[in-house]
Amino acid sequence: MLLFINRYFRRPSNDIGGRRDKGQLKEEGEKKMDMLSFCAGEASHPCAHGCLAAPLLSLMEPSNPKHRTTTTTRISRSNFAKSTTSSLFPNTHFTNHESLPPLADAFFSFSAVYPRYAETQQADHIRDREYYHLMNHVCLDYTGFNLFSHAQMRSSVAGPPPSGLLQPPFFNISYKSASLKSRVLYGNQETVLESAIRRRIMDVLNISDEEYSMVCTANRTTAFRLLAESYPFHSNKRLLTVYDYESEAVGAMAESAQKKGAKLMSASFTWPSLRIHSARLRKKVSKRKKKRRGLFVFPLQSRMTGARYPYLWMAMAQENGWHVVLDACALGPKDMDTLGLSLIKPDFIICSFFKVFGENPAGFAGLFIKKSSSAVLETSAIARSIGVVSIVPARTLSQLPDDYSGTDLDAQSSKFQLEEDDAETTSSFSGPIPTRICNGSSRTDDGLAENPSSVKQIQNKRFEQGETSQIRGRMVSKEEEEEEENAERSPEIVQLEDGNSVQAARTAANSRVDKSMEIECRGLDHADSLGLILISSRLRYITNWLVIALMKLRHPHSENGHALIRIYGPRIKFDRGPAIAFNVFDWKGEKVEPALVQKLADRSNISLSCGFIHNIWFSDKYEAEKDAVLERKVGEITVASKRKESIDLGINVVNASLGYLTNFEDAYKLWAFIAKFLDADFVEKEKWRYMALNQKMIEV
């Protein structure tokens, strides 16, 4: 794979006939590397040449000393880290929350270090115009893709929609009994709304409809489990995952795979950088003779620590016979716009979608299946009852506009409409919580939108972002199972007189209707208009500033000047992801419980999440730190249909995840809140209050 990439960028162009001399080739090579440096740098406009993701660029730096002139990208990244470290609060530590500079002064120094941040003001304009509910609330607990904007939701509630658009844009999801394999092979009858949303999503994510099929599932966990239940682990017996944190979705996949006889393997991450232990992972990927391996589940970046991983691991896995699952749930809306995905096409892609950023994130997950890899899937009775869903309009038929097309609202759609009562929406970290569900549609009181944190209930159980929509699945009837099995086993499809299949006729009819419909997904449109380069630059500036600001907080009157914050994973880095895993420590060096930090932040209208970092490997150099760093987490696993206790070693952490709508003020507010822990009385007082309430749910 690496050889192919190097050849691609050193290959002479055929635009001009004939051979070129060495001078021309050298000049073209320099131009290409300049283009790469520009794409990876701080450009504010989308690159017409195509942009490379940071993990892929890092693979293309040549090892030949003769080509050291092409390491401009590496030098620029190093200079960025040095400039950030030396320019932000030089020789300064903050020992009191009252000593922090005012917001205006902090932004002035921030702008001086990152002058090109001003070029990202378009994102601020979009936020002010379309997401004005974020004015008094800091949302740092979202990852995934939002489909619509807050203003779009309000406008659709306030008045009738424009006649040219398919409305309403806000949907419910209805459970559907279906086999994953049959959905890919034979398609399905989509509603107009579902077809429009699917096409819009695949277009924005640059996923070809000719190469991949999209199946909607209730949530991210359901997508992982559905894939595990449909994958032949009886013959491809390995499941290899690359996660530095505990994931509910990956845990569900592992449990299903283990029941089918799979051997579970995980990558290790070296302490303290939490980088992938390359030697160990390489050995697991290429172990033994080349044969059918199993599933290789790979995220391009850690949702918890922000560490980014090279695309090369996916290429290596494919070359060694693995089926590759790309977990794209932690990526930003435009991170899919990379050359890496056009060269390395994973067999399966999983994404998470929610309705509106900063509000109840009820939505669905998308499981994209490469059509050439669909033959490996098998029919499973369990998989049919897991959580394949259809997207249906949130309003009843009587509430639809007069010009709303009813072509697809046939008997099948009517069945979906009746099943809307089975859909339920759970609470989110950020924003207001729906207080009632009416006819399957979650509605929020206007009063809640004004002050989200005044009515929110914090749950002790940790949810993963994008996994907040749940469905009560109905039982699959025996007739339905037999009917679907017969359809999949049958070598023939009922033919019409003209030789076309019934399914082909239905698909063509639906396609004619669907193409005439449009749906406005402003959330996707906004990210699309900003582009990969602008979003990446914006998040790079804010994230690295926040890391420096947090590291400058130190306890007063301590002999060793104990740091208030410990950050896990990458710190100051050009290509780090927009997620930070950290913990708060008091003046005695004792860790403040992440759950307490999360709840106190929520009282300040700041939404954070918590997680558990694990799979950590300690070298001999850091072996002495192992016992002091690692914590024991007791859980349960299923072995031979019996529940047994399991013990995992890792670190409970607080997580802040930034998105393209995050601005500097959000980062400053988090910094100012964390600085309050410098006051020992603040910590002790809040600890006492937290314990007095017995850690039950707190209304904030």
Explain this structure:
This protein is an alpha/beta fold. The protein is 36% helix and 17% strand. The chain has 23 helices and 24 strands. The strands form 7 sheets. Strands 2, 4, 5, 6, 9, 10, 11 and 12 form an 8-stranded mixed sheet that branches. Helix 14 (339-343) links the parallel strand 10 and strand 11. The longest helix has 30 residues, at 522-551. It is globular, with a radius of gyration of 26 Å. The termini are far apart. Mean pLDDT is 74; it is low at 1-70, 159-168 and 396-515. Residues 417-500 are annotated as: Disordered. It comes from Cocos nucifera (Coconut palm). Residues 451-471 have a biased composition (Polar residues). This is Molybdenum cofactor sulfurase 3-like. InterPro entries: PyrdxlP-dep_Trfase, PyrdxlP-dep_Trfase_major, PyrdxlP-dep_Trfase_small.
